[in-house]
Structures are given as C-alpha cells and as structure tokens.
Amino acid sequence: MNKLWKVFYVRVVLALSMAMNLDSRVNAQAVNHQNQNIKGSVKSQSIGGKMPILINSSTKKAEKNYWATTPECFADAQALYGRKFKIDVAATQLTKKCSVFFSEHENALITPWLDDWWCNPPFDSKLAFLTWAYVQKSFFKTSGMMLIPFEPCTGWWEQYVEGKASVVYEPDGRYPFLESDGKTKKSGVNFASCFVLFTPTYTNETLRVRFKRGIRSTNSINIGVAA
Known about the structure:
Blueprint: H1 3-37, H2 61-64, E1 68-69, H3 71-81, E2 87-88, E3 117-119, H4 126-139, E4 144-149, H5 155-160, E5 167-171, E6 177-178, E7 193-198, E8 207-211
Parallel strand pairs: 2-3, 3-4, 5-8
Antiparallel strand pairs: 1-6, 4-7, 5-7
Helix pairs in contact: 1-4
C-alpha cells in the first residue's frame, strides 16, 4: 500500500469512527430529552442514528435491519435517478434489487462501489453507509441513491446529509417495506422515507425536490445525473 492510499485509508477509518461516535452521543441526548419532556405512551426520537420511534413497536430491533425495498419504491427511485442501478450495496439474496449486490458477508463499507449504486442500508448502520456514500462520490467519483428515514430536523441529518448529498427527493407519503423474505409486506411502518442522491458533480448545496409516488410511470429524468 503506497503512502497516498495509506493516508486515504486512515481518513476513511476516522470518518467512520466519527459517524459511530456521533451516533452514540446524539442517541444519549435524545433519551435525556425524552425523559425530561415527553409524557405518555407516544415517544419521539428526534435525533440520533436509529430509526425514529413514533409509537411503541413490537418489532425486534435486529429485524429492522433486513427490511426490504418494495418494487414500487425501487422503480420510483430509478425513475428519479434517470437510469438503471447497477449494484445493490446492502442486500441479501432474497432482498436484492440488482443482479450484482453486496450481502452482509461482503464488507460494503471498505469496498469501492460501482457507479450507479443503490442502497437501502441497515437501520443500525445508516450513518456508516452515508459516510461511505460521501467517500464514493468524493474520492471514487461515483453516483448513486440511498433510501433513508426522512428526518431533516435531526443532528445526524445535518451532519451526514445536508451539504453532502446533491438532492433529497421527498415523496408525497410513506413507502411501505417488505419483510426479510423480500415478499411479505411489512405492516405498521411508522416513519417517512426519502431518496438521497450522491453525485460527484455536487457543489455546495443540497436541493430538495418534492414528488408524487408512482413517478415511475412518467419516465422522469433526475436533474442531478446525466442520462
């Protein structure tokens, strides 16, 4: 490994470490805030790296890391992106959306991603995947799109999305998810999602674009990616 790659590797490791550390700190802050100000059975986790908890959930935490993207959601993302995705960087054999994919057995967080990547990251690792997506567009000059919870007023969003992503696509409602079998519709999804676009052509502002679900039928082309 030459000197340049050693420096690059160290920077990436530090960035990922910062992501994990921030995740822990903001979650602790959120818990303190809840204990002081929130009463009753409805809970709100407004900051932190975990999925927002809007109501008490009986879903096991580990299961949420395997929730799959519906075909309709993926088709909308691809229509907004403007061309087909070539690799799914966080999937299983049952949930993959591309023929080429990274499963949990490959380490997607230390491997360069092909251009035109798609990512529905495990909820517990979304900050690490956002960090690595930023590395992809900054160092490897690749483009791609990520499906994440829409939480623009949180600390993690401000640090990992705002000013780093090119475009945030906000749907007119919530997308459902599928169970880990990639077929069964998940019931009780209690949070909104959005598509986050990363491109190497991004300058210094993250655009916000509202759209209606089902946009796949209009053959829309994303303004951030050349066809």
